[in-house]
Amino acid sequence: MVKKNCIQAKEDGDARFCWLCGRRMGQRIHWHHTVPESKGGRQIVPLHPICHRTIHANFTNAQLARIGTNRELIAQNEIVANFLIWIADKPADFYAPTYGKRG
Fold first, then answer.
1. I need a surface site. Which of 25, 31, 37, 52 has the fewest CB within 10 A?
2. What Rg do the C-alpha atoms of the chain give, in angstroms?
3. CB-based contact 55:77 (threshold 8 Å)
4. C-alpha–C-alpha distance, residues 10 and 55, integer Å
């Protein structure tokens, strides 16, 4: 069974590129609420699972609610910025454990 926020890649082009890293999507897509649902968010964007885990490992829901759809503020976080450099040449379905500190 596939998790609620993870679907098989669609062919319709709605989710060709990851909102965070900009790489082409692979077989698995996580849909991320830019503002958490618990804070009233409705807009979703496609992410690689590893990119989704990186966001939530480094930001609380309250922080994400303040950031909203501003991808650049997320990318400016030192840990995320280093992650984006590191992940740039990895395959779309690359997996590695995600570490980070919220706060």
1. 37
2. 13
3. no
4. 23
Q: Torsion angle of alpha carbons 59, 9, 85, 94, nearest 10°? A: 100
Contact between 89 and 45 (Cβ < 8 Å): no
Domain ranges in the chain are 6-87
Residue 21 has pLDDT above 50, yes or no: yes
**How many other C-beta atoms are found inside a 10 Å radius of the C-beta of residue 77?**
18
27's tokens: 């077989």
Instruction: Give residue 51's identity as a one-letter amino acid code.
Output: C
pTM over 0.85: no
Q: Structure tokens of 87?
A: 């992940």
Question: CA 103 to CA 91: how far, in whole Å?
Answer: 29
Mean pLDDT of the chain: 87
- For residue 73 the two structure tokens come to 């503020």
